[in-house]
Automatic annotation (TrEMBL):
PANTHER family linked: CHROMOSOME 1, WHOLE GENOME SHOTGUN SEQUENCE, HEPARINASE II_III-LIKE PROTEIN
Keyword Membrane included in the entry's annotation: yes
InterPro entries, per the entry: Chondroitin_lyas (IPR008929)
Domain of life: Eukaryota
Listed name of the protein: Heparinase II/III family protein
Keyword presence, Transmembrane: yes
Keywords, sorted A to Z: Membrane, Transmembrane, Transmembrane helix
Transmembrane segments: 45-65
Length: 771
């Protein structure tokens, strides 16, 4: 394995969290290439019949516009009934009735608003007991007297069976964990596999996933089979097992050169040590500690303190923001808390004196002022999972999060980034999408809901397919009740200059709803996971993604992560260059990496209400406009706007461009395209969408091409990944000044009367300008 790129980058490394993209796609975890109908977990439990929840006291108004200014959970208390809300007792049921082909929850179509009430905490429902461990002056080196310390203290295990019996979500997730553990039990111990630059990350995360599930099932059954099975994984990952792990660097078995691997294995060891503490013999404990110290905490101390090793590049200095900092600090923290007091190396206490402050200065600031994650929509999973694990472990083990939750006063908004980034099919997943999730889920939302007192986050996540995980069992507040969409604005504009994007939709619960999102934002400083994509957009309607992203290139392509300067080889790969995005291409050239676009946006602020049956009024609308002139090295002016029309049934995309060189309007689609003159018809999944160019400038017609590089492009260091079945819809224009308007009319087949909007300059757009 060669780490030269790292050395030549002053100790930073840019190859990110590698994926094996084909394996990633084949798992269909988040972005299934071909959605398959997923087993419907809820069916096993019966579709909820009586949705009898009665509205409680109305708390708060519009999510996103309210920040619960409670003094957070810096010390003492466990999760549980923070603050507000009363309410009548009511039935409990899983609100979703299943999962659709996009892995998204399905809600029954009903106007019975009594079933879906205001997001709240219902004091009449059973809650977690209060943590008896509540130190008045918490210290990171003063751990609770009992075990477990990490995330799930004994008082929570004692309360859990009763809560599982009463709460349908906890019951569902408990069953999922048992099923998963049973499946993994039948497999051999995780096989060591060094995957190029991504190291042993997948392997590490599989070990962690199994350790979590096996030790969970042990604690819920007292069946020591699960202790033995956990021991088998630990032995194996120490190089002592039958499926012996072998490495070209046996003294660095956990691959500290790619420190994520080290960190995830350290976390796995910490969980196993702590959750099964009373089951291990003294010899076993000593063996776990010696392996952890040798391959995990020792390299951690080196990463922190030895300036002649590069393995700690993620500690900061401007490049420490992002998921790497969260994952690495969290793994070292969980492991150190687990062995603190038993550790004879001194590394555990040394690291705890370093990791918390470092994560507060770096990991916590991976969230920008608007809630957006600094990398991409998929890296959010890794970063927030580790942030949440670290917060939760510190609180359970020592009684405080030391302000990791609030040192960035806008961290709480990151749930909005995730919720609004989810379209009616897939995420608006610009840039790179990262590796397999394994232990990363969106369940950080359950913890954030409780700690920030934003029940919407938990109400959203509890119906998602990935909610069945051991962490959910302890992060979820079982007093959460209501429907997340009740009073939730349909649109949200994210306005930090580093991201600048907007999400707009016609419903939160209709799987056929319209969803449009567009971004501007700066192109550099995203851990080299961005694309050159100012003006990029996606569009869902009728359960289909009509305009979409190409996603990752091959992470192992030469220089894929070299840097994000204008000349970087990264920008030579089709999926990363401007022509591979759904935006304007000028002079067949990439956008300027130093782009500093501007945005404006407006929304009618329409909210859905509690019913799942919802039709926006005719004047309900939203728009996003960006002046993206600075994104072009060769244009006089480029402005792009997108808006919803006709009660959110149609979309207008308008580009005002002035350039001395050629202009190309491009979008990528999986649909079958039939283009003729100023109209195009897209067909997919038995649905159609009509596009037309309005007030067409001379020579503006639709043409199509395959999603391959233009023959005028430079040759990249390695071939592009093929994009089979993708068509690029194009409008090519010679140099000149244009107002190019493209109208998108999804063929809803519901009697919609389509409108033809007036021509209004972007500078004059307003909420009512197209009524
Ligand atoms: C958890 O799930 C397992 C497997 O379905 C079941 O046997 C067990 O009773 C459940 N635990 C509780 C507390 O309900
Ligand atoms: C976990 O179990 C659920 C329910 O059986 C299943 O749908 C899911 O695929 C399993 N996850 C893994 C990673 O095996
Ligand atoms: C497991 O053992 C603990 C401690 O003895 C006990 O409290 C718990 O009820 C037992 N659980 C089961 C499922 O037998
Ligand atoms: C693995 O074997 C080594 C060498 O005998 C020993 O030092 C270590 O403690 C063992 N680790 C585990 C987890 O068994
Ligand atoms: C620092 O790292 C170098 C290179 O791995 C190693 O030779 C040296 O012993 C380390 N220094 C300390 C104090 O651990
Ligand atoms: C964007 O977010 C970062 C990180 O929170 C913050 O430092 C910066 O001030 C924000 N920029 C703006 C324009 O709000
Ligand atoms: C094509 O469809 C797949 C799976 O539905 C999706 O992941 C991808 O983003 C789509 N691509 C485009 C260009 O729409
Ligand atoms: C950026 O990466 C390219 C290779 O893609 C390399 O030629 C160039 O020297 C690098 N620039 C900087 C500033 O590191
Ligand atoms: C929508 O909400 C935003 C943010 O509070 C506000 O600035 C704007 O005026 C509202 N728009 C309408 C049409 O009420
Ligand atoms: C385009 O041409 C005009 C007239 O020659 C010139 O003033 C302008 O600078 C040119 N713009 C760009 C971006 O080269
Ligand atoms: C796209 O690729 C297919 C398969 O290679 C080829 O048959 C077709 O002619 C290409 N279409 C265009 C517009 O180049």
């Amino acid at each position: 394995m060669s780490y030269d790129p790292i050395q030549s980058n002053h100790g930073h490394q840019f190859y990110g969290q590698d994926a094996n993209p084909s394996y990633y796609q084949s798992t269909g975890f988040i972005t299934p290439a071909k959605p398959i109908k997923r087993t419907n977990n809820w069916k096993k439990f019966g579709i909820p019949v009586a949705l009898l929840v009665v509205a409680g006291v109305v708390v708060g108004v519009v999510l996103g516009l309210r920040h619960h200014n409670q003094t957070s959970s810096a010390s003492g208390s466990s999760s549980s009934s923070s603050g507000s809300a009363a309410g009548s007792a009511g039935g409990r049921a899983v609100l979703a009735t299943g999962t659709n082909t996009w892995f998204l929850p399905e809600y029954p179509s009903t106007t019975n608003t009594a079933a879906y009430t205001t997001p709240t905490l219902n004091a009449a429902l059973s809650s977690w007991p209060t943590d008896p461990f509540a130190p008045s002056s918490p210290s990171v080196l003063s751990v609770r007297p009992d075990r477990p310390r990490l995330i799930a203290p004994a008082y929570k295990w004692a309360a859990l069976p009763n809560l599982v019996a009463k709460d349908p979500y906890l019951s569902l997730w408990n069953a999922t964990i048992f099923e998963n553990a049973t499946q993994w039990d039948a497999l051999p111990a995780v096989v060591y596999f060094m995957d190029g630059d991504s190291g042993i990350l997948d392997v590490a995360r599989q070990v962690k996933q199994r350790v979590k599930a096996f030790s969970y099932v042990y604690r819920m059954t007292n069946n020591t089979h699960w202790v033995d099975r956990t021991w088998e994984e630990l032995q194996n990952a120490a190089g002592n097992g039958s499926s012996t792990w072998t490495s070209t660097t046996p003294d660095d078995l956990w691959n500290s050169a790619h420190f994520l691997d080290t960190a995830e294995l350290s976390a796995a060891y910490g969980i196993a040590y702590d959750w099964l503490y009373d089951l291990w013999s003294a010899d076993q404990k000593a063996a776990i500690r010696s392996t952890l110290v040798k391959f995990g905490l020792g390299p951690g101390v080196q990463a922190y303190t030895n300036s002649s090793v590069f393995t700690g590049w993620w500690r900061g200095g401007g490049n420490g923001f992002g998921n790497w900092n969260c994952v690495c600090n969290n793994g070292l923290t969980m492991a150190s808390l687990a062995i603190l007091g038993d550790d004879t190396s001194g590394f555990a206490s040394q690291l705890l004196g370093l990791t918390v402050d470092n994560a507060k200065a770096n990991c916590a600031f991976a969230v920008s002022s608007d809630g957006t994650w600094s990398e991409t929509a998929d890296y959010w999973y890794f970063g927030t999972t580790s942030h949440a694990e670290m917060v939760s472990s510190l609180i359970s083990a020592t009684g405080s999060d030391y302000d990791l939750l609030k040192v960035n006063p806008n961290f709480y908004k990151t749930g909005l980034f995730h919720m609004y980034g989810q379209g009616t099919t897939q995420l608006f997943a610009w840039g790179d999408n990262g590796p397999n999730k394994y232990t990363a889920t969106a369940n950080s939302l359950l913890l954030y809901a409780d700690k920030y007192n934003i029940p919407e986050y938990a109400l959203y996540q509890r119906d998602q397919f990935d909610a069945g995980d051991p962490w959910s069992m302890f992060w979820y507040n079982p007093q959460t009740s209501g429907a997340f969409w009740d009073n939730m604005p349909l649109d949200y504009a994210f306005d930090n200059n580093t991201d600048q994007w907007m999400s707009m939709r016609s419903s939160w619960t209709d799987p056929n709803a319209l969803f449009v999102a567009m971004k501007a934002g700066t192109l550099v400083g995203h851990q080299t996971h961005n694309d050159l994509d100012v003006g990029d957009f996606v569009l869902d309607a009728m359960g289909t993604r009509w305009v979409g992203e190409l996603g990752d290139g091959d992470y192992r392509s030469p220089d894929y992560f070299s840097n994000d300067t204008q000349g970087s080889a990264r920008w030579m790969y089709y999926r990363k260059m401007t022509e591979g995005q759904n935006t304007i291409l000028i002079g067949a050239a990439n956008q300027n990496v130093n782009a500093a676009p501007k945005m404006t946006s407006k929304s009618s602020n329409t909210t859905q209400g509690s019913s799942t049956v919802f039709t926006p009024s005719k004047d309900s609308t939203a728009y996003f406009v960006t002046d993206m002139t600075s994104a072009y090295l060769n244009a006089n002016s480029v402005k792009r706007g997108i808006r919803l029309l006709n009660g959110r049934k149609q979309v207008l995309l308008q580009d005002e461009v002035s350039s001395n060189t050629t202009i190309m309007w491009r979008m990528h689609t999986n649909a079958t395209v039939s283009a003729s003159g100023t109209t195009a018809t897209l067909s997919r999944d038995g649905k159609t969408m009509d596009l037309s160019i309005l007030n067409a400038p001379d020579s503006a017609t639709f043409t199509t091409a395959n999603a391959t590089r233009l023959n005028t492009d430079v040759t990249p260091p390695a071939p592009d990944q093929p994009n089979p079945d993708i068509t690029v819809l194009i409008i090519s224009l010679p140099a000149g000044t244009y107002n190019l308007q493209v109208l998108f009319n999804p063929q809803w087949n519901d009697g919609t009367n389509f409108v033809t909007p007036p021509s209004v300059l972007l500078d004059n757009w307003d909420l009512a300008s197209h009524n």
